Amino acid sequence: MQKNDRAPRNREIERKFLVKQLPERLNRLRHYPIAQGYLAIESAGRRQVRLRKKGNSASLTFKVGRGGAREEREIKLSSKQFAALWPATAGRRLRKLRYEIPWNGLLIEIDIYQGNLSGLVVAEVEFPDQVSCWRFEPPLWFGREVTGEKRYSNVRLATE
Amino acid sequence: MQKNDRAPRNREIERKFLVKQLPERLNRLRHYPIAQGYLAIESAGRRQVRLRKKGNSASLTFKVGRGGAREEREIKLSSKQFAALWPATAGRRLRKLRYEIPWNGLLIEIDIYQGNLSGLVVAEVEFPDQVSCWRFEPPLWFGREVTGEKRYSNVRLATE
After folding, report:
1. What is the pTM of this model?
2. What is the mean pLDDT of chain A?
3. What is the DSSP secondary-structure string of A102-143?
4. pLDDT single digits (tens) A44-79
5. Active-site entry in B38, B99, B113, B152
6. Least CA distance to B81: which residue of chain A?
7. How many Cβ pairs closer than 8 A exist between chain A and B?
8. Whether the complex's predicted ipTM surpasses the cut of 0.90
9. A86 touches chain B (CB under 8 A)
């Protein structure tokens, strides 16, 4: 691995929870649809290449590693680039509605899954460092923590 | 799989041979360096996502399937997009010099591998259809046919 692979900007520190009860007046918060699909998934080492359309913007993301911290590299795609690759994700896709909730200086992202996965609601929180990650106290409306649980990974949800 | 996944433009029909002897005056032909690396490789189904720099132009290619015909989708990348993803291919790269030889209305591509793979020379011919593929008679300076042989796939060459 090269030196700049360990740079903080390429690392995600996050925790994931099921959601017991949706907060009120959710529709007043920033929200947008997300469609994502996987071009390739390596089970060993958990490498993945994901395509995502978030509102009107498209991206390609490379991820590797597991658990609370992993390497991530993302590029924006033009609509044309996205359209050329998207058909290759058939059978490995999911759709969700994402709501963004500012919370104690952090951002909670609520994902309401759609289609086959309708009924599943997950909250994700990303942290600027390990300390704020450990110290995080989940709001009362959060349910069980599922950080690192394979069955709630988007790769699994998209392919099973 | 979607209907447009079977469209001819996404299919490659090609044969691959070792090269016994390089043609003369090779440097008078069009040639350029290629650097390529793999973001992800799925062994089952042979899915792969490849980054490539060919001369000054960069691309990302998705491939799936095996043998003489497989699905392929490619997009051009800007230098910035390429630079953001390239570090993720560390340890899964190869370099080669490619020469293009027009031959009986077809194009022979000769790849002279570099670095660890120095000494390996391979010729590839792509065909517009299956009939021209079957009918192809290799020139005398071609060696053994290695179409479909895993050990000569670029994925294997880049990772072993």
Report:
1. 0.84
2. 89
3. EETTEEEEEEEE-GGGTT-EEEEEE-SSHHHHHH----TTEE
4. 768 999 999 999 999 999 999 865 547 899 999 999
5. B38
6. A75
7. 74
8. no
9. no
